[in-house]
Design brief:
With about 90 residues, the chain is an alpha+beta fold. About 45% of the residues lie in helices and about 15% in strands. The mean pLDDT is about 90.
């Protein structure tokens, strides 16, 4: 479940850098041009002020039949609110 989070966060990080080299790096992982365009044009500006943690994994329980664990992944919508510093 955690492997897809790593790849999704890495694609947004490449999108935030936004240069041609980073777009080509994203295309080497994700082969669909429309997906990479959405990451660079829509998702990267949304998370420009966020330092990381772009995705959320929600566990759905086990699948009927083979009892495999199920989960869904989504991009967070809430703005990043920094925590108060501990003194």
């Amino acid at each position: 479940m955690q492997e897809i989070r790593r790849v999704a966060d890495q694609m947004v990080t490449l999108g935030k850098k936004g240069e041609l080299h980073h777009r080509r790096q994203a295309l080497s992982v994700v082969k669909d041009q429309t997906v990479v365009s959405k990451v660079f044009d829509v998702l990267a500006p949304r998370y420009q002020d966020r330092a990381g943690g772009y995705t959320r994994i929600i566990k759905l329980g086990n699948r009927a039949g083979d009892n495999a664990p199920m989960a869904t992944i989504e991009y967070v919508q809430e703005p990043c609110v920094p925590r108060a510093s501990r003194s």
